Amino acid sequence: MKKHQNHRYFTAVCIASAIFAVLLCLALFLIVTGDRSELERVEAQAAVFLEQMEQAADSARQSAIAGAQDNFGNSMPGMPDASSGIQPGQADSASGKSTDETYVPSADDEYYEKITDAIRDDLPYGVEWQECDLSRKQEDASFYALYPKLTGEIRNRDYLNEIIEKQALLYKNYCQMYVEQAGFDSCHIQCFGYVTNMDSEHLSVVFDQKFYLNNQSMPGLSAINIDVETGTILKKEQQFNYSTRLAERFRKQCQKQNGLELSENEWPTEMLRKLLSSDGGIFFYTPVGLEIGFNYNGVNNQFGWMTATIKDYEDYLKKM
Asked: Does 17 reside within a domain?
């Protein structure tokens, strides 16, 4: 009887050990997949945008749309062109990145004027610049990206750098495919990163993306926002209440800041609210305040983005 009891005890120990091993593996799997969720979101964003880009470019090709790189086809009523919203400064002659050393955004400013770097050197962490240049391989397809890499002391630095690099190089392998497999005459993509905010609380990296497919220009804007204290990615759906009140605030600020009259008939409040909270919605921090907006991709062959400054953004944060 004692031996049998020992056998039962041994069996119980084995079963308990197996259960513990399974639970441990499951926990590790959840941790890894949780860390990778942001990478998966970035890849999903790329897939949606590329589908819209191809549809718009194919429509443009079939309609024999030609002209300069900033040709966006026929405008829809009330639809701003790609120059709407804040814009980068003049291009730097070396890299093509837009710079404006005369503009230094401040908390005292009424609104954010243009995308620019706000890099500091008095923090435990810093940035250095990385470059990916495939622009010299052939004339009909090219890719260029300039993006920051985090250095120094910041939590989850390697993971955050992986997210930043993934976003910067998201479309690196698509130019050749569009020319060779999709039958387009040319495809050129540029992605310029900006550190629009850098302090002990928030780090924002904004990507000004320029797509040139045949003669169609397709600008896009994306952003990565980091909680510096925890080393985690801030997601808009977790941060903000995208209410009708915020949509109305955005409408009024757009008119004041960008000279755009987004009428209720053409831009209903509910539509603005959904655009701001959609996958194409963007937000990023600046020394002036919070910049929110959205991309409008593939609407009547139009691509572009618009943003507006919300200085008292704390009023729209979700209660944690």
From this structure: no
